[in-house]
Specification:
Chain lengths: 581, 291
Amino acid sequence: MDSLEVFNWKICGVGGSGLQAVSNILGRTLVRGGYSVHVYDEFPSIIKGGLSTGQVAVSSRTIRSHRTTVQLLVCLTEESIKLHAGELSPNGWLVYDSDVVSGAPMVRPDVVSFGVPLTSITREIGAERLLRNTVALGVTLDLLGYPLTDTKKIIAAEYEGKGHQLVEGNYRALAVGAEYAHAHAPKKFPVALHQLHNPQPRMLIPGNDALSIGALAAGCSLYVAYPMTPSSSILTYLVKHGPDYGMVVRQLPDEIAVINQAIGASFAGVRAMVGTSGGGFSLMVEGLGLAAMTETPLVIINAQRPGPSTGLPTWTEQADLRFVMHASQGDFPRVVLAPGDPNECFTIMPLAFNIADRYQTPVIVLTDKYLAESWFTTEPFSLSGVKIDRGQIVKRGKVDEQTGMYRRYADAPSGVSPRPLPGTPGLPFMANSDEHDQFGLSNEEADVRITQQNKRLRKIKGIAEELPKPSRYGPKLADLTVICWGSSKGPVLDALDLLAADGLTVNAVHVQALSPFPTQEFRNLVSPAQRTVVVEGNAAGQFAGLALEQTGIELADRILRFDGRPFEPTELADAFRQRVK
Amino acid sequence: MAKPAPSPSKPFASQHPTWCPGCGDFGIWNALQRSLRRLKLKPDQVTFVFGIGCSGNMVNFIKAYGFHGLHGRPLPVAEGIRLANHRLPVIVVGGDGDGLGEGIGHFLHTARSNPNITYIIHDNQVYGLTKGQHSPTAERGFISPSAPLGVQEEPVNPVALALASGASFVSRGFAGDVAGLEELVVRGIQHEGFALVDALQPCVTYNWHNSYHWYYQRVYNLDSVGHDSKNFVAAWERAQENMAEKIPLGVFYARSRPTIESQQPALARRTLVEQQPSQPIDISKLLTPYQ
């Protein structure tokens, strides 16, 4: 185990066999026990079959990311042993289904192999094959010396809607797994976990759920989407819970309909949001410009996955940054926010909606598969400081005598002019995708064009003042300053903690608001740095290029990852160590 | 700004249209205003959504609340408006290129979801604003600047497509018959659900084939042949008539079925816009499952 004393558990098997569910239950059990947990899944882009994994990293200290070295590996198929046994730490344990593996598994001599007849045990208790996972969970908990009580409560809560029989079946599976391990484990497992005293109530939550709850808190009342990994769970979450909060949630036939429908709803006065991944965002691009041109508020979530094109559908990457911040033709303010963890996901949503409403413009929230679908330990979200600001919506006003129309797009110093909602008595106007005058009527005269274009672009100044500033983590002065954005925050901060334990002084700058760019604040944090390294999940160093363009600071040293896998803190720590030696 | 056209007798007119003299759009524009006056609606009570094209330029000639969106995309905007405020009468004005070329997917899916909107298609077989290329409703062999050998595809039949897509009100009018078109728009607005008015419209500049005269020789009213608009099979047969010979006008099909708005639990009592919160929503209950 590393200096953060992380215990890492991994289960491997065929996709669609419930690995994500069992990882989640183990993770939540240990969060209830007061541990800091990170749950991370890998799976191919097919419904059934292919090899999938679920993994749970656990520590009594704060952790924010997964680990690649595994202490306890559970393999449900023979092939998964071949693929993953190499990830075991020295003296790590392999638990495998001895019913499906012929003979003793071929592993390193230091590895402790523990064959458990998971298939026959599951069959003997009359349970479905899928419950092999729960038997394996029982084995795991017994090896760790951990009580089954919290796990049973979580199982009950999770499956009560699906029938008492399923809950009972899981209970039995859990118990027989634990009993088998108790009777047959070859020796004492080297790691013991126990419930920590007075554990703070904390949550284990994925980024997509945090975004969804943040949107609900912010009063978002229309969400429309087309399913696309890794954004789909926002749709399934909100369609389940949104109606209880007065929300209209719909799946639509394509992303073009999605963005146009959300714009229509927002034009008519409701807080509207759409969510997608890069491919769907590509289809929304023309609509993005429409929202800006008609000055219609809108929040767009793009949960990134590796491109180009359909790329690696179920993996992670941070390579849409330059795309979303320049998307659509013409000049207009593009607001791009990239939260780094679920708490930032939650808090950024009310801000995104307030900015969209107050500046009457689209706001993009950029996440990725790692943040969207991994489960992170976080304090319960707090509404303190959350406000709803709908901006300037007018119910009364003067209309032009000649046209009888309201000056919806009257020039204003802030760039923002009051808007009536359709149906308001006496204030008709046109929202117009074509360049338009103050009433919204099409107009191609040069002075009108210049006035309206400057009006829209002036909003950037006000928006920039309201965005979150870059954060520094670690000491003010350091031998190395790590620069990152979005979801790389977790692995980077965990790497910093690993280095601090070694007595190395490394700090990090995390940027959440990427457009408009926080030029001055970034300069203030990065200029004094002895040495810098950028960590970002794309091949081109998109953020590093953006920072150079916006600040003149050249960030030549870059750690880039674009293999679909997220950054891992022990690997990052090694890379940082080499730079400060 | 073009010269103003408002007069007390035409409350919905804003500026005088810039369409070519004789354009069929004038007939549709007049029929639309007449139907709104007949329904005693005021400009601030109606919301228009316009597509892009000569038809969409009506954004500048109508006084009301309105949204002039992207080419091919007015229908989802209109459905969004209805979900936000299902008390607003919403009228969509678009062309055949807009709705049957670029946006044909929205046409099909909006007919399925059945929002309470009236959709008027200016159907003139050509793209006027880009100088006369053929549209998806142009008949085979029609010669255009982008089809010098003649159009090689079968034309889209908007009436049949609407019927096949589950549209709850399907009609066809003609810009040269303003009174008939007015009647269809009135009935379309009164219909609870997606109402199609396919408005045949001569383009006097680029389409010399489908002229007023050409239409007058072929159109007839469905009422005059005792068509039953509740009979889907009869509607389908009428929709298949060869337009080179006979062109039926009127209501092909009308039936009552639930709108998409009426099926949203959140809209059961009030409109969504009336329910917009001013304080953050308490989400604490949602956090429990994660603990």
